[in-house]
């Protein structure tokens, strides 16, 4: 066995073993990289250099700001305002509260960019409300966790920033624009599924639509929605970079949460900033260690080897695209979102662009949506666990109730994968 083959085997086998042993993902990535470097006879100074290089990126500075913005807005009384707005829009339908849940998640996703935050915030309000109105608890939980994945697609999503950096400096503004229609498509798909189930189970309708109430709720929620406008319009129009717009959005979020909605006092602000530091520590350690892992993959030519192996199976772009989705879905069942983006992108992106004819932006939306589905699947589905904890429902019961919504999400994924215009229409329209 030559040195290259030995190093690849050490890197991948040690990583998989540590994942199966439930090592923290950052440790598994770092230790497998160390063993790989030792197998190649390289100096471990490389480890330190690549870790520092991995987080020395101006674009990545946007990630802490977006996370901080989401935490401040999510804790500042935004959820209730957005739920009221969603109720004014779609609450009149059969299964109205399920529709409200889905639309509220679309709105809130533009604030938090986090499926976990969406589930914890919206779910803690909507699930008890739905149960009180006669909805089954497992159905209410399934609607909440699946609709929370809209927030991964709707800007500003820090996972899109991570993908843009990992993929080689793709325009963050283009990714932001590309997420809107897939996010809306996912919402519509989930609403169709919810309506069918609601009609079958005779779930109640809400109050009749009122244009006066709708305008009133728009006026109340405009402060929250303006944060998204600042970020997206600023980046797309070229007024700010993603990092600058994120920093401005943090200051705006602080002002709205403390002085407008008054959901946070200054003591609460410091508490939430402490929570941000904990989250950021995890994210940045993961990015830095994944940078070393990516360095090992690149120097060992693993992406080229994987591409060659996959293409030898078939050269049909339709089948190849389906295979990429299956790979990402399987990874989503055993790994969290950020590690998948950081580790899988350098390997799979060349296959997607060279052999499937996918644009890197379209592939980014595919990656994010696949990872979102993974957040809802055992054994590592973080959002599934959060939803189960919030609703106090057994995870097995929640998974069973989620099965119809998995189908809705898979249909959306296939449309995004095979209809490029869904992702590329807005970036092309605005010339990004």
Your description of this structure?
Keywords: Cell inner membrane, Cell membrane, Membrane, Transmembrane, Transmembrane helix. This protein is an all-alpha fold and 432 residues long. Helix content is 80%, strand content 0%. It contains 21 helices and no strands. α3 packs across α14 (266-299). The longest helix has 34 residues, at 266-299. The protein is globular and about 70 Å long.
Write the layout of secondary structure elements.
Layout: H1 3-20, H2 25-40, H3 45-55, H4 62-75, H5 78-90, H6 96-112, H7 115-132, H8 137-147, H9 150-153, H10 158-166, H11 172-201, H12 211-236, H13 242-260, H14 266-299, H15 302-313, H16 317-334, H17 337-354, H18 360-374, H19 382-391, H20 395-418, H21 420-429
Helix pairs in contact: 1-2, 2-14, 3-14, 4-10, 4-13, 4-14, 5-6, 5-12, 6-7, 6-8, 6-11, 7-8, 7-19, 8-19, 8-20, 10-17, 11-18, 11-20, 11-21, 12-13, 14-17, 15-17, 16-17, 16-18, 16-20, 17-18, 18-20, 20-21
- Helical region count? 21
Coarse morphology:
globular
Helix content: over 70%
Strand proportion: under 5%
Radius of gyration: 22 Å
Care to count the β-strands? 0
Describe the oligomeric state of these chains in a short phrase.
single chain
Query: What's the overall average pLDDT, rounded?
Result: 84
Q: Uncertain spans, ≥5 residues at pLDDT below 50?
A: none
């Amino acid at each position: 066995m030559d040195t290259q083959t030995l190093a690849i085997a050490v890197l991948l086998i040690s990583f998989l073993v540590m994942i199966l042993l439930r090592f923290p993902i950052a440790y598994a990535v770092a230790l497998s990289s160390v063993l790989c470097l030792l197998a190649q006879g390289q100096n471990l100074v490389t480890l330190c250099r690549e870790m520092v290089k991995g987080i020395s990126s101006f674009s990545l500075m946007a990630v802490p700001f977006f996370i901080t913005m989401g935490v401040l807005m999510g804790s500042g009384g935004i959820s209730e305002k957005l739920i009221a707005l969603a109720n004014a829009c779609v609450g009149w339908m059969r299964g109205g509260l399920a529709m409200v849940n889905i639309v509220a998640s679309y709105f809130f996703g533009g604030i938090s960019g986090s499926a976990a935050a969406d589930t914890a915030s919206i779910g803690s309000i909507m699930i008890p409300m739905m149960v009180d109105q006669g909805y089954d608890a497992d159905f209410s939980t399934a609607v909440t966790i699946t609709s929370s994945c809209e927030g991964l697609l709707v800007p500003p999503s820090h996972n899109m920033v991570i993908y843009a950096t990992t993929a080689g400096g793709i325009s963050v503004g283009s990714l932001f624009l590309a997420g809107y229609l897939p996010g809306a498509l996912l919402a519509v798909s989930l609403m169709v599924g919810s309506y069918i189930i609601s009609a079958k189970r005779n779930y109640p309708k809400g109050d009749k639509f009122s244009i006066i109430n709708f305008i009133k709720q728009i006026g109340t929620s405009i402060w929250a929605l303006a944060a998204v406008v600042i970020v997206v319009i600023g980046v797309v129009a070229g007024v700010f970079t993603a990092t600058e717009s994120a920093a401005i959005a943090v200051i705006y979020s602080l002002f709205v949460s403390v002085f407008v909605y008054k959901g946070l006092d200054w003591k609460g602000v410091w508490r939430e900033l402490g929570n941000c530091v904990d989250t950021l520590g995890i994210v940045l350690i993961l990015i830095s260690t994944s940078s070393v892992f990516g360095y090992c993959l690149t120097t060992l030519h693993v992406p080229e080897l994987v591409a060659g192996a996959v293409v030898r199976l078939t050269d049909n772009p339709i089948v190849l695209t389906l295979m990429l989705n299956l790979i990402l879905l399987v990874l989503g069942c055993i790994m969290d979102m950020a590690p998948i983006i950081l580790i899988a992108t350098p390997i799979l992106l060349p296959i997607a662009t060279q052999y499937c004819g996918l644009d890197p932006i379209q592939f980014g939306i595919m990656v994010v949506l696949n990872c979102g589905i993974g957040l809802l699947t055992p054994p590592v589905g973080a959002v599934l666990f959060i939803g189960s904890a919030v609703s106090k429902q057994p995870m097995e019961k929640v998974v069973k109730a989620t099965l119809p919504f998995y189908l809705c999400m898979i249909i959306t994924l296939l449309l995004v994968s095979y209809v490029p215009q869904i992702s590329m229409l807005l970036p092309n329209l605005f010339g990004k």
